[in-house]
Amino acid sequence: MAATMSSILTTFMLLLVSSSLVRTGHGLSYGHFNRSVFPTGFLFGAASSAYQYEGAAFEGGRGQSIWDTYTHKYADKISDGSNGDVANNFYNLYKEDVKLMKDIGLDAFRMSISWPRILPHGKLSGGVNKEGIAFYNNVFNELLANGITPFVTLFHWDLPQALDDEYAGFLSPRVVDDFKDFAELCFNEFGDRIKHWITMNEPFTFSNGGYDGGFIGNLALGGAPPGAFVPKGIQLLSPISSLIIYFLATQLLPEYTRRNISKLDVQAAQRALDFIYGWFIDPLVHGEYPRIMQSLVGNRLPKFTKEQSAMLKGSFDFLGLNYYTGNYAAHILSYSGNISSTTDKRVRLSTDINGVHIGKPTGVSIFFDYPRGLHDLLVYTKERYNNPTIYITENGMGDVNNHTTKHATEDIQRVNFYNGHLRAVQKAI
């Protein structure tokens, strides 16, 4: 697959894949903007993750993940008290879902393999769940039979609870070998059909939300020492020891167009990119963390050996980008309180200036409709990181669940959202 012009190869993982975006009676007319304006090889698809989508949490020999523990034991931490026990029930309804994908016209489907469904105890020594292997074989075969290319994520945050209990998961280097075993098992079982492997979903969010912020899974129960950067280094080394590709994602792109922007704020925006984005991609491109991180974090930042640096550099085949919104960045002169990966960058991120939001609000309070950010992120990645192959592996708009049937069917705001972001991608190409 080859893209034209800037050679940015992107996959827009969206449910919106109609060949013509046309609405009559609502002032919307996008008939001239369709698949034909994108280069040959551009894929349209949808994305999911095992815990959010599969359900069947207690079926088919699946072991428990940290999310099972978290949502059941600490349901008060989930705004609506929901969990993934049933979810969309993809485990039992995958054939119907694949048919819907084909009817919509999807080229690709991104999904994740549940580590505890394959290895209920997290380790090879605990036994391989043959029912789990059979389930994924059936799903992959069904997708391919319907002309849909699977993009498979190995780790989408559902760490086996057994490994969290035994050694605190990614806080311990012991996870490297267990993840390596899990990855190699997946390659051996499914590698004859799966050609697009994604190592980890949003390592920044998993690290900061779990080990630093305490709101991803049950990681709030343990957590890293204040200001620790250990999980990120281990996450980088886990894929390398497995000799697999790396997945990088970000949801934050600082905005540069503020009126009267100062030089310090421009520098703050770059620091935010380095701490949120470069933290994971710089080692893969350059073999080391961004220099500003090394300077500000100091000895708390893990050091790569020469051998590790050499293994990391150039070790990915493509980057997967998740984009939902943009942020303004402002310089912070000083900070007090606990040292953390959040305060180290000395940047204040916000979504508004004097009450004016960066984009149109969505159903998720921290996400705003801001297509320019996606365009800028693609161009930034192309220019700063030697024009890597890119797939957009998540993009979408959250919505409230109280619309009338008529409103939900017309879904005008979402049509506008996707139109804007697709145009941003096309412009970047």
Automatic annotation (TrEMBL):
Active site, per annotation: E394 (nucleophile)
Q: Which InterPro entries match?
A: GH, GH_1_N_CS, Glyco_hydro_1, Glyco_hydro_1_AS
Would I find Hydrolase among this entry's keywords?
yes
- Pfam family of this protein, just one? Glyco_hydro_1
What domain of life? Answer: Eukaryota
One GO BP: carbohydrate metabolic process
UniProt GO MF annotations: beta-glucosidase activity
Q: From which residue to which does the signal peptide run?
A: 1-27
Alphabetically ordered keywords of this record: Glycosidase, Hydrolase, Signal
PANTHER family annotated for this entry? Answer: BETA-GLUCOSIDASE 31-RELATED, GLYCOSYL HYDROLASE
| Family label | Belongs to the glycosyl hydrolase 1 family.
This chain belongs to which protein, by name? Beta-glucosidase 12
